[in-house]
Amino acid sequence: MDAKTYDMGKIDIAWCPGCGDFGILKLLKTALSELDIAPEQLVMVSGIGQAAKIPQYMRCHYFNGLHGRALPSATAIKAANPHLTVIAESGDGDMYGEGGNHFIHCIRRNPNITNIVHDNQVYGLTKGQASPTTMRGFKTPVQVNGVVLEPFNPLAVAIALDASFVARVFVKDAEKSIEVIKQAIQHPGYALVDIFQPCVTFNRINTYQWYTDNTYWVEDHDPGDRNAAFARATETERLPLGIFYVNPNKTPFEQTQPAYKDDNRPLWQRTPDSKRISNLVRSLVKSI
């Protein structure tokens, strides 16, 4: 399947020239095409922000939710139709800030979804205030004296919670990043892929060159070793890239649901039991 399968034709794309989001859009299209996933079998789910616009620029099903609410929506979509490929994607602010609590509990549930996070270490849509992953000392129009908080470490948090797939890539390293994204999509369970991508307008520190100079791809690393993965995730001198941790032994959330115990048909293919629904509604009314 060609990556152009997901093209929307001539549309207005509201990103700044040089924005890393263009690269991520290309990575996703290429990975999906190489996996031969048809647009009608794909659902993209996002929240609010520049990153969250990606589903609007792809030919597929998509759902734009509230700020920080992509993961619960994606979990519900996958539970209602496990046959779909579901990708939740948004920025570091949307996923780790407004969506931080959902991020934690989505890891605990382990739905079979892929979580793509555009990590540019700043809020781009709302004019450059610090995000959860912004480095200490970074000055913004809001944090005029520089950020004083310790940056949120999504990889360390995910590994500590035993997320079943944890990875980080850099958008400029296209070939390696595509392979990681493909493995994440194929993984049977929750898969986090944090993608470093520059914000060329509001973050003049973490540039393409900065990421090139301050990251490296891990080698001779066993992703089954959780302790080693956590140690990698907490490195700060140079930031590692690659697949940090994989736990193939966790059951996806939707497979634990009673609705699929004796019937693997997605919910939309089933005929509703009107009598049971009516009895449930009446019981709820009586309890008020």
Second-tier CATH architecture: 3-Layer(aba) Sandwich
Mean pLDDT: 95
* Count of strand segments: 8
CATH topology: Rossmann fold
Question: What distance separates the N and C termini?
Answer: 54 Å
The Cα radius of gyration reads 20 Å
Task: List unreliable stretches of 5+ residues.
Answer: none
Helix content: 25-40%
Number of structural units classed as domains? 1
Helix tally equals: 9
Biggest beta sheet summary: 8 strands, mixed
**Computed structural class:** alpha/beta
Furnish the topology, listing elements before pairings:
Blueprint lengths: L19 H15 L7 E5 L14 E4 L5 H11 L4 E7 H7 L1 H10 L4 E6 L34 H7 L4 E6 L3 H13 L4 E6 L11 H7 E3 L8 H8 L5 E8 L27 H14 L1
Parallel strand pairs: 1-2, 1-3, 3-4, 4-6, 5-6, 7-8
Antiparallel strand pairs: 5-8
Helix pairs in contact: 1-6, 3-4, 5-8
Question: Gist?
Answer:
The protein contains nine helices and eight strands. It has helices spanning 20-34, 70-80, 92-98, 100-109, 154-160, 174-186, 208-214, 226-233, 274-287; strands spanning 42-46, 61-64, 85-91, 114-119, 165-170, 191-196, 215-217, 239-246.
What does this protein structure show overall?
This protein has 288 residues and is an alpha/beta fold. It has a single domain (3-261), classed as Rossmann fold. Helices cover 32% and strands 16% of the residues. It is built from 9 helices and 8 strands. The chain has helices spanning 20-34, 70-80, 92-98, 100-109, 154-160, 174-186, 208-214, 226-233, 274-287; strands at residues 42-46, 61-64, 85-91, 114-119, 165-170, 191-196, 215-217, 239-246. Strand 5, helix 6 and strand 6 form a beta-alpha-beta unit. The chain is globular and about 65 Å long. The termini are far apart.
